[in-house]
Amino acid sequence: MVVVGRAATADPIKPGDLPLDGKQTFAWPMDPETKTVRSGSRLNKVLLLRLDPEGFDAETKDHAAEGVVAYSAICTHTGCDVIDWHPDRRLLECPCHNSAYDPMAGAKIVSGPAPRRLPALPLKIADGRLVVAKPFTGRAGFQQM
Predict the structure, then answer these.
(1) Residues 10-62: pLDDT tens digits?
(2) What average pLDDT does this structure show over 86-93?
(3) In whole angstroms, what is the distance from residue 61 CA to residue 125 CA?
(4) What residues contact 78, with CB distance under 8 A and at least 6 apart?
(5) Of residues 7 and 63, which shows the higher confidence score?
(6) Are 107 and 98 spatial neighbours (Cβ–Cβ below 8 Å)?
(7) Cα dist from 126 to 1, 53, 56, 123, whole Å
(8) Distances (CA, A) of 85 to 49, 94, 103, 135, 145
(9) Domains along the chain?
(10) How many CA atoms lie within 13 A of 22 on its CB side?
(11) Beta strands of the chain (E only): which ranges?
């Protein structure tokens, strides 16, 4: 089992730790026994959002846990970190070239030059903690042409 945790504290994250409709939280997969956080590669970095699951499309509902979605934090355009959350528009955005993603619809591209959506990291709940349910739904990062 792999839990989702914060690199700074090596604490597993629970759904209630994330504010509903709040700013994204950055996290990394973590071994719950050894507390080893897999932060050695940028490609392991995920962003977590807790949203109202009533607005999720079917695909997003399948990989969410109690309204929490996890996506690769690496933009698929040139590999910058996706750090901007626009709660009014409910969109994630990469500040490098303004690719915008809809986290309610599987992080599909809404605007910008990104060639594909952000890969999702399917989650489940185990012992009250967010746990990785399956591998990323696609390759994290970007592909050079």
Answers:
(1) 678 899 999 999 999 998 887 777 766 766 678 888 999 999 999 999 999 99
(2) 95
(3) 14
(4) 96, 97, 142
(5) 63
(6) no
(7) 9, 19, 22, 10
(8) 9, 9, 10, 24, 28
(9) 3-132 (2.102.10.10)
(10) 11
(11) 3-5, 25-30, 46-50, 68-72, 84-86, 91-93, 100-102, 108-111, 123-126, 129-132
Sequence-distant (≥ 6) Cβ neighbours of residue 64 within 8 angstroms: 53, 56, 123
CB 102 within 8 Å of CB 93 = no
Q: Is the pLDDT of residue 3 over 60?
A: no
Structure token pair of residue 51: 């949203």
* Amino acid residing at 27: A
Return mean pLDDT, the chain. Answer: 88
More confident residue, 116 or 9: 116
pTM of the model: 0.90
Tell me the HSE value of 58 on the side-chain side, using a 13 A CA sphere: 0
Residues 71, 67: Cα–Cα separation, whole Å: 13
pLDDT score of 42:
80
Six-digit token string for 119: 């890969």
Token digits of residue 30: 């973590």
